[in-house]
Amino acid sequence: MLTNDQTSWTPSKALFLQHQFQLVATAPFDFELLVYPFSEVVELPYFPENWHERLTGYHNLTILRSFQCPYVEVATENILAAASKLDISVDLVEIQSRDELMEKSPTPYGIFSVIYKGQLISFHRLTVHSVYKKLQTLLEEPV
Question: What is the bridge-based pairing of β-strands 61-65 and 90-94?
Fold first, then answer.
């Protein structure tokens, strides 16, 4: 079970911990991996450890997405609208497979990520105004 107590759209880990799930891994941006162990001899799932490296490969404004959620299209449109207002071009990467997701996603929530200048902008839907403000701040930072 993937949880993130800083979001309102992932389940709370408290419910799972009350039912004998165990925390087995954490990742940046407050993600946690919980497991219900059926047996002690099973290899536990894990998170990769190269999250930061994945971010550094993206210099342009880049959207990574996979259509596993109905909000991905709206989230993408909001990024594109904000980028257009700031005259920033956008690279759109359609994640087609698990292997591609495991290689490219900068967070455990691999179906949507927005990265600019090696920094994660978001892994969830933002309003056009929120995206605009975040991008404008990054444009003002010295290179």
Answer: parallel
Cβ distance 17 to 34 under 8 Å?
A: yes
CA atoms within 13 A of residue 17's CA, in its CB half-sphere? 8
pLDDT, tens digit only, all 143 positions of the chain: 999 988 877 888 999 999 999 999 999 999 999 999 888 777 888 898 899 999 998 989 999 999 888 889 999 999 999 999 999 999 999 999 989 988 899 999 888 999 999 999 999 899 999 999 999 998 887 65
Would you list the DSSP string of 23-46? EEEEETTTEEEEE--S-TTSPPP-
128's tokens: 């056009």
pTM, rounded to two decimals: 0.86
